[in-house]
Amino acid sequence: MGVEGRDKARVLEAGALALTGQLGKTVQRLRKTYNMSLSELAEHSGVAKSIISQIERNETNPTLATIWRLTQALDVSIDRVLQGADDDAFVAKTTRADTPILVSDDGRCRLAIIGWIKTVDWLQWYDFAADPGGQLESEAHQRGSIECLSVLDGELEVEVAGTLDRAKAGETLRYRCDRPHVIRNCGPVTAHATMVCILKAAVMD
User: Fold this and answer.
1) Residue ranges of domains in the chain, CATH in brackets
2) Which pTM value belongs to this model?
């Protein structure tokens, strides 16, 4: 092997180490985001706990099959796990005209999608408004999902699996949204709230 070959090998090795390092950081970040222990991730992925630990510490070069098993357990794409992290500071703005608005079936509730598209797989958040009598009915989200409804103005009622609770301005309702749920405005004025949906993030008794 000539000098050029040795240099090329070093470049490839450096690239592999950088990629593995990014993989380890991403796996660890997602695992902690989903509140999963090493043992739980090992059980869901079929990858040995010791191997996952080595990957997170950048002490091994996993095979593509191992990466695939981990991405399936973490419910993300291989591209997302392998993509580089952008640590540069930035400021991004979405104008009112560019903010998507969803309207409930009764036309009395509006959801402005203000969340970041890059987090949509595990975190979604909205600006929610409901006119008097408005009702937003939602199907069950994926298992383990939780919704947080923080009321800014007015009063809102949440019904989940037959359980009802209400919140006024300054109060927050947190509830499992991995089952059908309804948000209602039973008050006389328009209600305004921030809604955050955390997918697969927690287990509630």
Assistant:
1) 3-82 (1.10.260.40), 101-198 (2.60.120.10)
2) 0.58
